[in-house]
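User: I'm curious what two different proteins look like when written out as structure tokens. Can you demonstrate?

Assistant: Sure. I'll show them one after the other, since each token string lines up with its own sequence. Here's the first protein:
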Amino acid sequence: PLIRNKKVRVLAVLNFFLTLIVMLLFLTIILLFGIVVYVKRQAALAVPKHMPCLFEWGEWSECSSTCRRSTKNDPPMMRRHITRIFNATGGIYAPCPVGLKVGYIQHAPCNVQICPKKLSRFNWTECFYRIPHIGKRSGCYKVRRLEPIDQLITIDSTSLYKECKKKDCPEFMP
């Protein structure tokens, strides 16, 4: 043996193993540091430096009505709200608008067609001569006054015209 003293030999062996452990710890720390740097670099590459303001909408709600009551009324509406916002990054794109926040509600018209109307709900016109050049003697009739709007008419009655009583016939047609 090179080292004759038993205590020195034990200390030399212990020193050797401790040096190996320290070197392994040092290499492990360097390896972990390299992994952290690599992951951060990959994350930086995954997120673009310049990104516009983006937001995600939720699903549209049910329409508030199946049809529109009249052309004078506002149409039924459906709505949705913003569920997530991704603010603009970098200096190329404008920032998100002021007031834009999660929960912001957007409204849109739906079922804009006018509700169907039953034929029996339409009023009658004034009386007309059946044969105009004969006049009141030919008899009179009236017809349903259909409005010139884009509306579905449900046929619940077969009476599109009806006879007028003689007393309701005008003396002359204007």
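Here's a second, unrelated protein for contrast:
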Amino acid sequence: ATLLVFTVMMVLTPALAAPNENASDKAKSKAGFIPEHAVKISESVYSLGNAKDHTGKVVEGFLFIDNKKSPAKPDGTPGNGNKKTKPGETSTCYTLFAKGASWKTTEPYMIGPGIDGTLTATSLDAWDSEVAFEIFGPELENENPNGPDSKSPDNKNEVMFENLGPTSTIAYTITWGIFGGPPSQRQLVEWDVVFNSDYAFGNADIHLV
């Protein structure tokens, strides 16, 4: 199955991420973090348009928003957790997007200030245990995120905090990839995950709400 949108469940120390130095992300207006050029597809999905990756390939970007108390899939879609969902289909951790669009190589990543490296690795390893090969590679310990890339990918997979304020948005993910053309040529090439530092993150198994 294609993993496109994911929620990383981990213990996080509330702290602000490093300032976003990506000039392409400075023009934000719609919801504070949604760039002006983004085109709304649904309440929680925006198209970021086309750009070129570090190899020169044309890729397409999407922004996925994880809002508090909102289903990860639309009503009537298997896996959204509502009454219309088929028995046994309760997953809300991923969305199937385009046939064949999957990770082709193992992807290293970097984390920002306040993100627990050990627990991040543990959560990503949980995903790797469910797929045919290791998607998430090692943490790049000597590198720091430079901010989510909403205009074009920078060949960096990043996990970071950003103060989005007291909104319903818990986190958002930006994913770049090739989603059209022959399925065999489709692929995912980059992801950035941003957690709202206005929320107090913790272990849900220990700190029940």
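A detail about the second structure: DSSP finds one helix and eight strands in the chain.
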